[in-house]
Design brief:
285 residues; single chain; 10-stranded mixed β-sheet; alpha+beta; two-stranded antiparallel sheet; 22% strand; YokE-like PH domain-containing protein; PH-domain like; globular
Length: 285
């Protein structure tokens, strides 16, 4: 990993007409680090779209005096996830199909990380103090070289400063509206009043009518695709019933709705999914 001085990166960004938010404090040398074989322009070109896509969320999620050190797109539990290291903590953002940040969101203070282990090639395993484990896969090559040293440096400084905030779990859930911490097993944000779907309620909604589940927790594009697929399956079920295959039609209907309800349950267990927010405090998630 080659860390570049901030000034050449700022000059190259200006030359390429690429702007970053002045309200976010970046450590440009590690955010846009590069391998020996990469040019600075190539490193910026590959990382800038992801960094820029994160800015609307970062503007709401970052704490006072928090600096962004590292941004990468990997995979966590078979889901594309953006990993951000700051001088205080690790932030995790789920993504939509276009790799744009989308709920749920999490934060892990460095004091809650027992160990970070490179496992194999593109993998990292993180052991947390509450006994849970996270495994990240498929980091880009330059980010694999950068992740460990940036984390180690930030974690060491945090330890020296004695920063160890109280938590309800090592990987804390963040509110999708105001990005305050929501305690474990909590489904309402004390800071802004937003409420979130419980696994059972979302599972029931998805089982009764699958598109209704997608419409409330997924992007409009994804929900529309789910709706089209479901109605295609439903049309086939109706066709089977008309052909006299009533038993098979009922079985297929139950399995389809049951599978979707189970998927909705797992989504809600994975992280907080916004249900309702107060009109006066709405924010784009």
């Amino acid at each position: 990993m080659t860390e570049v001085a901030a000034e050449p990166i700022a000059e190259k960004l200006a030359e390429l007409n690429l702007a970053l938010s002045p309200e976010i404090h970046y450590r440009l040398g590690t955010v846009f680090s590069r391998t020996e074989s990469m040019s600075l322009e190539q490193a910026i070109g590959e990382k800038y779209p992801l960094v820029k896509a994160c800015e609307p969320v970062l503007l709401k999620a970052l704490l006072e005096r928090e600096q962004v050190l590292f941004v990468s797109l990997g995979e966590l539990s078979f889901q594309k996830t953006i990993v951000i290291l700051t001088n205080l903590r690790m932030l995790l953002f789920s993504t939509d199909r276009k790799q744009i940040p989308w709920q749920p969101y999490w934060a892990i203070y460095y004091s809650q990380i027992s160990e970070l282990q490179p496992v194999f090639m593109e993998q990292y395993k993180i052991l947390l103090k509450d006994g849970s484990k996270l495994k990240f896969n498929y980091f880009p090559w330059q980010d694999r070289q950068n992740f460990q040293p940036v984390y180690s440096e930030a974690a060491k400084k945090v330890e020296e400063e004695g920063l160890d905030p109280p938590v309800s779990q090592s990987r804390e859930n963040l509110c999708s509206n105001c990005f305050a911490t929501v305690p474990k097993e909590g489904y309402e944000c004390e800071a802004c009043g937003a409420t979130f779907w419980t696994p059972f309620s979302l599972c029931l909604r998805g089982f009764i009518f699958p598109p209704a589940g997608s419409l409330v927790v997924r992007t409009r594009r994804a929900a529309l695709i789910d709706m089209v697929l479901y109605f295609l399956i439903l049309s086939y079920v109706i066709f089977l019933q008309a052909q006299g295959n009533l038993t098979f039609a009922i079985l297929m209907f139950v399995l389809t709705n049951g599978s979707y309800g189970d998927w909705m349950y797992k989504l809600a267990k994975r992280g907080l999914l916004l249900k309702e927010i107060r009109l006066e405090k709405q924010a784009v998630n």
